[in-house]
Amino acid sequence: MDDQPRLMHSSHGVGMAGHPGLAQHMQDSTGGADGEGRKQDIGDILQQIMTITDQSLDEAQARKHALNCHRMKPALFNVLCEIKEKTVLSIRGAQEEEPPDAQLMRLDNMLLAEGVSGPEKGGGSAAAAAAAAAAGGGGSDNSTEHSDYRAKLSQIRQIYHTELEKYEQACNEFTTHVMNLLREQSRTRPISPKEIERMVNIIHRKFSTIQMQLKQSTCEAVMILRSRFLDARRKRRNFNKQATEFLNEYFYSHLSNPYPSEEAKEELAKKCSITVSQVSNWFGNKRIRYKKNIGKFQEEANMYAARTAVSATNVSTHGSQANSPSTPNSAGGYSSPCYQSDRRIQ
DNA sequence: GTTTATGATTCGAT
DNA sequence: ATCGAATCATAAAC
């Protein structure tokens, strides 16, 4: 049980480690019975502590300078840095070098694809180009919608770039400020260049999360704009009369098998100034609607059958078969193209 | 304003 | 991937 006093003593020693002088005083004075002298010592020490705050800035600066010029300073600094490196920072070091954020990459890719973050006006937006292609040559009317889209996109683009620049500038300013501060402090505190670099990284990461928010909201804005534009594209425009005639011509002259091949679709698309998928849509709609109500299309069918017959006759008089359909439904006849259930459309 | 026509989209089947 | 079918959404006709 004689361990107890020693333990207590040692614990006191630790507790006073920061003020060895004070501990010394207290220990010394426990031996003597002079309470007055002890009071006096404590008073002195308190006085000293209080006067520290009264030191002028110049005095502190001078002390700092003196400390800096001390011959042991570099060695001491290195040792402190090493200790610091080995303790706190090594723990944090393990979490660094995280892989590039997947979401950030996606946002970047999208912004690039939409022409928001890419080169200025150059090739224009890929989306706009695609949309223009999809809208087809059928309508010269959609040019206003298109320019509207482009105007809105460039507006978004402008806001994005100004904001991005602002953040970048703020980031740089802040980084410089912190670096200067740390460099200054590294004269009196163990701050290694590596640590400053680390701090800069942390700042950059913080700012990049802000930038990511900007990118996120920009992406949202583009998506909204795009969905609106897509909706606008959904606004149906009838094909022009000639295009419809070309399509009907093919349909009724291939009534037994109204399924144009890919090549035929391409040719029709070219002739009608529409896309291949529009041709496919048209045939899909036509087949189902014809099938649903053959009676309604009878007149139309007769008309195109007659026309085909006439053109076939014309062609035959010229001794050429170039324009002849591969599977003429009513070759040479005026008979109404009766639809039969054993044909492809059922 | 209602109805019809028509191009586009979606969904399940093949 | 392409088709039929149902459906949507809008243009055009009434």
UniProtKB/TrEMBL annotation:
SMART domains (alphabetical): HOX
Domain named Homeobox: residues: 230-293
Superkingdom of source: Eukaryota
Main location, first listed in the record: nucleus
Keywords of this entry: DNA-binding, Homeobox, Nucleus, Transcription, Transcription regulation
Classification via InterPro entries: HD (IPR001356), Homeobox_CS (IPR017970), Homeodomain-like_sf (IPR009057), KN_HD (IPR008422), PBX_PBC_dom (IPR005542), TALE_homeobox (IPR050224)
PANTHER family associated with the record: HOMEOBOX PROTEIN TRANSCRIPTION FACTORS
Name by which UniProt lists this protein: Pre-B-cell leukemia transcription factor 1
Source species: Sinocyclocheilus rhinocerous
Gene: pbx1a
